[in-house]
Amino acid sequence: MHANAVAFEAVIADLHRQAPDAVVCLGDIVMRGPQPKECVDMLRALNPLAVVRGNFDHRFTRWPPPGWAPKTHKEELRLRDFTYTSARLPEADQVWLANLPVDACLSIEGHSIELYHAAPGSLHQYIWPWAPIEELQQMRTHAQTDLVLFGHMHNPFIRSAKGLTVANVGSVGLPFDGDNRAGYVIIDFDKTDTAIQIRRVAYDIEAAIQIAHACGMPDIDLFEHALHHADYPYE
Question: pLDDT of 78-100, one tens digit each?
Answer without folding.
Answer: 999 999 999 999 999 999 999 99
